[in-house]
Fold this protein.
Amino acid sequence: MNDVNQQETESEDRLNVRSAGLLNRSRERIEQILAAAEALVIETGMEGLKMRELARRAGLPIASLYHYFPSSSSIVRAIAIRYLDSLRTVLAAELEDIINPATPVEERPWTADRLARNVLDYLLRTPASAMIWDSLRSSPDLRQLDMEDTAQNARALEPYLRWV
């Protein structure tokens, strides 16, 4: 390998390492912001989600907050997406655990009670769930997100309904 190619390779390697570090730091900051936003929402409701207060609670300059999220509605959307993804994961795990070909056909409908209770338990353990559900219906953008999530959940439930 000639010196120019070797220098280019080393430069690319340094850039990749630096990019990976920046990416990790960005993910950590986003998590830091969303955790602070969820805590603020639980304490004050969605109306209390103010950018300045969120920046203060997240321990970040307000410019950093705006770097990741241009508005409070973008934060609400990110919280809702994270929440819906988590709920979908819970539903998928429950379905995987419940669907068992060895279960007698006459007993299968009773599994719906278990499924509903376990999903409800998850919702009740998530302090911001009621506020998140309310926010999903408050704007056209979030309503669309809710509708897409509902369609995904319906597709996830289809094998279960066939099994039952």
The mean pLDDT is 87. The chain has seven helices and no strands. The helical segments are 3-44, 51-58, 62-68, 72-98, 111-125, 129-136, 140-163. Residues 3-44 form the longest helix (42 residues).
